[in-house]
């Protein structure tokens, strides 16, 4: 689904920040490289999509570091590491899966230079009990300039995402707003 998302964003001259799971970077390096080359922002979302409330602090911090190491492989890759591409990445952004982490986990990650990014609008595209129209309305009824909207480029979210994302991008475009990476 990610290549489709990239094409939709490009169609609307929109940029996004993708909070990537390290394991997915490892499995799909070409897609990760495309995110960078298309000028989207990159953030860390742990290596294995861990729930911070259910994970020991040390294990959580190690998992975030493992994901950062995987992303940094591309920053060191000569085919990707040009000044233009490097400026399109920000290795210090972090969004906790499920929006859940402990205060101690947050403090340690901030001490290590991560900026924790949450959101003000959750599309709920991943929720199979939410209809396509409900997903769309979750965004459209709450969005304003400066909003941080969470969509998921996953197979679980695909049905709702394919319906809602183009309509949201069209709405933003008609308002004269701009989608930007962080």
Molecular structure report:
The chain is mainly alpha-helical. The chain has helices at 2-11, 22-27, 29-37, 57-76, 83-86, 103-111, 132-140, 158-175, and strands spanning 17-20, 41-44, 93-94, 115-116, 121-122, 149-150. The strands form three sheets. Strands 1-2 form a two-stranded parallel sheet. It has a two-stranded parallel sheet with strand order 3-4. α6 links the parallel β3 (93-94) and β4. α4 (57-76) runs parallel beside α6 and α7 (132-140) packs parallel to α8. The longest helix has 20 residues, at 57-76. Residues 81-91 have low confidence and may be disordered.
Encode the helix/strand succession as letters: HEHHEHHEHEEHEH
The poorly predicted ranges are: 81-91
**Overall helicity:** 40-55%
Number of strands: 6
> Structural class given helices, strands, pairing?
mainly alpha
As an assembly, this protein is single chain
Strand order of the largest sheet: 1-2
- How many helices in DSSP terms? 8
Cα shape: globular
Q: N- to C-terminal separation? A: 22 Å
Mean pLDDT: 92
Quick overview of this protein structure:
The protein has helices at 2-11, 22-27, 29-37, 57-76, 83-86, 103-111, 132-140, 158-175; strands spanning 17-20, 41-44, 93-94, 115-116, 121-122, 149-150. It is mainly α.
Helices, strands, pairings?
Blueprint: H1 2-11, E1 17-20, H2 22-27, H3 29-37, E2 41-44, H4 57-76, H5 83-86, E3 93-94, H6 103-111, E4 115-116, E5 121-122, H7 132-140, E6 149-150, H8 158-175
Parallel strand pairs: 1-2, 3-4, 5-6
Helix pairs in contact: 4-6, 7-8
């Amino acid at each position: 689904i990610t290549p489709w998302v990239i094409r939709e964003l490009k169609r609307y001259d929109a940029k996004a920040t993708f909070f990537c799971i390290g394991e997915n970077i490892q499995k799909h390096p070409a897609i990760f490289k495309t995110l960078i080359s298309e000028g989207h922002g990159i953030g860390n979302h742990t290596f294995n999509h861990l729930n911070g409330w259910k994970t020991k602090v040390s294990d959580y911090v190690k998992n975030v570091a493992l994901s950062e190491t995987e992303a940094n492989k591309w920053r060191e890759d000569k085919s990707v590491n040009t000044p233009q591409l490097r400026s399109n990445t920000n290795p210090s952004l972090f969004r906790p899966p499920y929006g859940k982490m402990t205060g101690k986990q947050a403090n340690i990650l901030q001490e290590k230079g991560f900026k924790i990014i949450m959101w003000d609008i959750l599309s709920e595209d991943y929720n199979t009990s939410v209809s396509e129209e409900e997903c769309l309305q979750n965004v459209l009824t709450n969005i304003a300039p400066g909003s941080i909207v969470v969509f998921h480029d996953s197979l679980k979210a695909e049905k709702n995402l394919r319906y809602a994302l183009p309509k949201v991008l069209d709405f933003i475009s008609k308002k004269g707003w701009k989608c930007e990476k962080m």
